[in-house]
Amino acid sequence: MASRRGADELIKAGRVQVNDQPGQLNTEVSDSDSVTVNSDQVQKQNLRYILLNKPRNTVTTLSDPEGRSTVIEILNIKERVVPVGRLDTNTTGVLLLTNDGYLTHKLMHPSFEFDKVYEAEVEGQITDGKMRKLEQGIQLEDGTTAPAKARILEGTTLSKGRTLIELTIHEGKKHQVKRMLEAVDLPVRRLHRSKYAGLKADGLRPGQWRDLTKDEIGRLKQA
């Protein structure tokens, strides 16, 4: 019915009742409890786990005040799912969306170290020293990045003076990949996330999506 922040506002406004009593921010709720919002019974929704090949020019939010296209509009499903993390407007590739809050917390918490693999088309001269810096950690305004994996991807036809680099990280700092590469004088011209927590968008064109299989969901929960 609402985001966590929105639910807080509903509760503070006195619009939520648990077993016919006013709900509080610290009220614990179990499966056997009755919860109403504005006297309407709250129903469970089915858990969905969706893999989207995010296209360019879409924002990774539930709504956008500027009127830009959102990833939620692409899905057009009845369940209220949220993106697990964010991709920049012009970054393409693997994006997971779900309404499983516990799994979302696990995936986004840096202590679990789920790999995020990016393919970045960059300009500038590639040197061994720059690659080592990327792998050892880059000093950014909000701290030093954790060690990463970096390699040059061969066999792809690119514009003159550009190189395709694969960078594997497990953090989620804002614009992290772009900032890491710019810090070693390799400005990014195109960015694509090819893999997230072992999931790939193989067979999905930009803007297409699918539900995760039971095996994929099981592997995420066991990880």
Tags for this model:
223 residues, alpha+beta, Alpha-Beta Plaits, 8-stranded mixed beta sheet, 4-stranded antiparallel beta sheet, 6 helices, 22% helix, 27% strand, elongated
CATH homology superfamily of the largest domain: Pseudouridine synthase I, catalytic domain, N-terminal subdomain
Integer average pLDDT = 93
* Content-based structural category: alpha+beta
Our measurement of the CA-to-CA distance between the termini, rounded to an integer number of angstroms, reads 29 Å
Low-confidence stretches: none
Second-tier CATH architecture of the largest domain? 2-Layer Sandwich
**What share of the residues does DSSP label as strand, in percent?**
25-35%
| Count of discrete structural domains | 3
CATH class of the largest domain: Alpha Beta
Shape: elongated
- Order of helix and strand elements from N to C terminus: HEEEEEHEEHEHEEEEHEEH
**What does the main sheet amount to?**
8 strands, mixed
Helix content: 10-25%
Radius of gyration: 21 Å
Number of helices: 6
